[in-house]
Amino acid sequence: MDILDILISASFWTAAIRIASPLIFAALGELICERAGVLNLGIEGIMVVGAFAGWLTVYLGGGLWFGVAVAMLSGMAFGLLHATLTVPFGLSQHVVGLGITLLATSLTYYCYRLALPSVTSPPKIEAFQPYEVPFLSDIPLIGEAVFSQTPLTYLAFVLAVVVSITLYRTPLGLAVRAAGENPAAVAAQGLSVTGIRMGAVMVGSGLMAVGGAFLTMSAFNSFFFEMVNGRGWICIALVVFGSWKPGKTLLGAVLFAAFDALQIRVQQTPLGADIPYQIFLMAPYILSILALVIMSRRAQVPAALMVPFNKGER
Amino acid sequence: MTNHKEAQVVLRLDNITKRFGSLTANDAISFDLAQGEVIALLGENGAGKTTLMNILFGHYTADEGRVEVFGQALPPGNPRAALAAGVGMVHQHFTLADNMTVLENIVLGTAPLWKLGFGKAAARRRILALVQDYGLQVDPDAQVGSLTVGERQRVEILKALYRDARILILDEPTAVLTPQETDDLFATMRKAVALGLSVIFISHKLHEVTAISNRVVVLRHGKLVAEARTADTDKHILAQMMVGEEVAPPSVRAANPGDVLIALDQVSTPDRGSAPGLKSVNLNLRAGQIIGLAGVSGNGQAALADLIGGLIAPASGSLRIHDAAPKSWTPRAALAAGIARIPEDRHKTGTIADFDLTENAVLELYTKPPFSTKGWMHWQAARDFTQTVIEGYDVRCPGPDTRIRLLSGGNMQKLILGRVLETTPEVVLANQPVRGLDIGALTYVHEQLLAARDRGAAVLLISEDLDEVTALSDVIHVISEGRLSPGFERGALSTTELGVWMAGHGFEEEGGSHAA
Amino acid sequence: MRLEPVANPTLTRQLGLPALALLCTVVIASLLAMIAGAQPFSVLGLIVKGAFGSKFAALETLNRATPLIFTGLAVAVAFRAQLWNIGAEAQLYMGAVVTVVLGTGALSWPAFALLPTIAIAAMLAGAVALLVPTFLKTRFGVDEVVTTLLLNFVVLLWVSMLLEGALKDPMGLGWPKSARLIAEARLPRIMDGLRLHWGFGLALISALVVWVIQRRTTLGYEMRAVGLNAEAARFAGIPVNAVLIKTALLSGGLAALAGFSEVAGLKGNLTLDISPGFGYTGIIVAMLALLNPLGVVVAALFVAGIFVGADSMSRAAGVPTYLADIMLAFALLLMVLAIMLTKFRVRRS
């Protein structure tokens, strides 16, 4: 099959958009944190927690949407821990973030081992099923690619719009952007920098967890170790690539996912058979690094990113 | 103007005390502000003015005492309550988000956070009305990052007015303005008073205080030491009240200029964001002379300081040291050329807070013996050198092993001074050398600069305080938007004439600028 | 709330708060063990016994500590200069690959010449692996946290490729593993009969060397200055980018020694699971040591003890081994909090 044939096949784009969905959730979550001035390196671990919490809820008999809510809440709990240490206490966001990733990951694996002491192959759950949007799904190509996805995918795209509107068109969004640019401006207008930043980190972490939950509840339908596999780190690169703007970040996630879907398909072509499969697996990570290099000059970093705010400072 | 004794009291500070560790920043301060009154809050750096205003505004909580606005006690530590009660504050360091528009900065925090949308059209109408009423010209849709300092200040005032402030607190508002812009600000203040507002104006510039205020409140070392009607005082009395003793202006001996040590010929440097670079600048630094650089902050002073200090090289034009072009131009090349550099920000660029005094003292010297040989540090030599500086420059500290973070600004500056002057430099670059220092440290620094000049060093003094520049400089250049005026001998121009240059007039017809 | 600097922290404060942090970690671990249905105190006892309870256990802990000392030093050196090297894992594998390439017969030199050659070559490979992100940081301003993290995945996949291709052991029955090192390329044991190799000795020497570099040399002084305040360092004439590159060389080289020591000292060949995250654990070791090179040795022993102890505890008490990672994560977070609170006091504003 020719690469061009792949690119115009609906199944390819269906896969691309499915692969993009968890990245959109998590990258939007990271974007919210960073727009408020907090780099959240806990993302990788929080995605693991979300993946597990959502899956476990459904496995234990909870509803699918209830599972998403549980995932989100557990992500927010780790967000609260992250925010408490980095915002009022002003600890290094690098160290705390990595610590949260380690803590979230190991706690999840610990709980998994406790919940399922002796399973060899991880049990599957009844996950979200594709929902064909009436009429729209009948459009050739686009209908199959975009409008025959699971509800969580639709939610991801809607969320990008919501985040964008909130950031640029509401008083809350103004406050979040100002907190990431100059927290003193927020404090001088009688708002609490601590409150806004902690809130942003919690909401952002909740979204990261939903991104993780997508993996277990809408893609792989079961939980296994190492399933997040660096997606969190890629989302951090996506936020930079998207210049901290929701629309561009979403676009970056889709482009990235399209490339990922492409490499999976090229692997199965005669051309791909001659190349070690590891090369294809490396491609997303190398692509992320290249994206960072290309965008580094143009990106407008929030000025107060990683700068703690302490109003008593003299 | 209204007689304040009969007017309604709008603000009452009662027995305010605030301690930071062992330091008492405010010691039982009480005074009233009446409707339609302008009070000048006068005091040296570190006298406690800003702390007091931060308590009033709710950024800090007082340890004792209370604040009443329109007869109601303000809940402590709550800026929101202060804003709601009608207190508006224009901070010394602007509190604006550069990535947002003027309008967005103004409406930030005025609507409930959970509201959908923030009523842009209505907000714009209100802002334009305020712009009209108070003469605060600024475009509501401009990105704040692209505004000049004067415009940013107007945005800050608009922020307060947009919230219906009845009491306006202006913290050192004139520090960043040209004399003409200061006049505009005063016009705005008079309009505000005419519309029924009351103003607290914080300053340490006496001529401004006498020009605008009805009453003066003087703080010294955290205590309220005097309160008087402005009409009953004069600059001399105020100066004495502020400092607590007679201040002798630095006794300036006649200069004895020698050879040109550094010559800039048609030098330009790139702009940096909103800060202009240098534009075809000509400047000669001569031995035995203090050259003062006057100008409103952000007009290219940083570029000139970085150029002389070796942090940037000319993009065009030539820089010559002893009439020879340096091969490369780096901080180390500048140091090797005998240029001593006192940086603008002693906390950020001058010292490393978590290094001890020794490690800070050798920061520019460690590469050479006796401090190191072949990559090995000799800490004993470094400690001995530090001890010499501590003793020679009166640095008050527990010892050379103290982290410099624990020193006061004045002692930190003395260590920097010692570090650079101990090498008997040929050129001294002093960028804002006394900013934030108390009168004792200030006088000391000025004396050292004069002594360096008398020894034969060329001194370049960069300051935003015009009084400081005129008092010390043998020759004054004015910088505006990166252009440099010709040099003016001491006393050649009046303050007003300097102000005209500072506002950017007088440059055009000459095309470039002039040698001293 | 507001944080107020403490001018002269008392000794009680300086020691008490970190001790409290460790105590909290132990309490949390006990609670988690209880959830798993075990006796909390017996679990802790089993961990200590499993780590240091016998000569065999103690030697196992020292062996486990060896790579952690190297990666801990790598991280400590880099973090000291604010170079956020999260890529010690990749640098470790680079060192391991070079060890295998040179040590499986390509060079047939006597051990006294071969071992130092391999060690230096390994260090160079690790240095190069960190040089790329460092260059991207100094040249383009790309955050090295993300690039070093992403490169970990790339390098691991590359190693996987090599083990299924160029470096695959023809006698390996299809397993992705390399051929075994020749005898001259193996690090000897410190004492006959003891299962402890000279990699441990090399780790201790490295810690001492790093300590001397940081305290006694101009380079160490420059690295600390750049880390504490790059702007002031640049103003003072310290070539910040050059210092960062030298730091990267040192840091990457140290991490690579972990790979060299694991292959040449312990395993004898290269497999994909040669490091169970030693590179990442190095971050915890470095932070617990407060970035002090000599402290790294102590912290590495502590961390290795928890891992080794948790393995044996898990077999005995049925509590998942992940308890070790949880304890370390809490120890890390609580320790950075405690260290901050030794310097600052929490006050109401």
From TrEMBL, chain A:
Bilayer-crossing regions: 6-26, 38-58, 64-83, 95-115, 151-168, 198-217, 278-296
Any single Gene Ontology cellular-component annotation: plasma membrane
InterPro entries: ABC_transp_permease
Alphabetically ordered keywords of this record: Cell membrane, Membrane, Transmembrane, Transmembrane helix
Cell location: Cell membrane
Membrane topology value: Multi-pass membrane protein
GO molecular function annotations of the record: transmembrane transporter activity
One Pfam family from the record: BPD_transp_2
Name used for this protein in its record: Nucleoside ABC transporter membrane protein
Organism: Sulfitobacter mediterraneus
From TrEMBL, chain B:
Entry GO CC: plasma membrane
Coiled coil stretches, renumbered: none
Record protein name field: Nucleoside ABC transporter ATP-binding protein
Sample GO molecular function, one term: ATP binding
InterPro entries per record: AAA+_ATPase, ABC_carbohydrate_import_ATPase, ABC_transporter-like_ATP-bd, ABC_transporter-like_CS, P-loop_NTPase
Localization in the cell: Cell membrane
Keywords, in A-Z order: ATP-binding, Cell membrane, Membrane, Nucleotide-binding, Repeat, Sugar transport, Translocase, Transport
Principal localisation: membrane
Automatic annotation (TrEMBL), chain C:
Record's keyword annotation contains Transferase: no
Membrane topology reported for the UniProt record: Multi-pass membrane protein
Pfam families for this protein: BPD_transp_2 (PF02653)
Name of this protein: Nucleoside ABC transporter membrane protein
Family annotation (InterPro entries): ABC_transp_permease (IPR001851)
GO molecular function terms attached to this record: transmembrane transporter activity
Predominant location: membrane
Top-rank taxon, per record: Bacteria
CDD domains xrefs: TM_PBP1_transp_TpRbsC_like
Subcellular location: Cell membrane
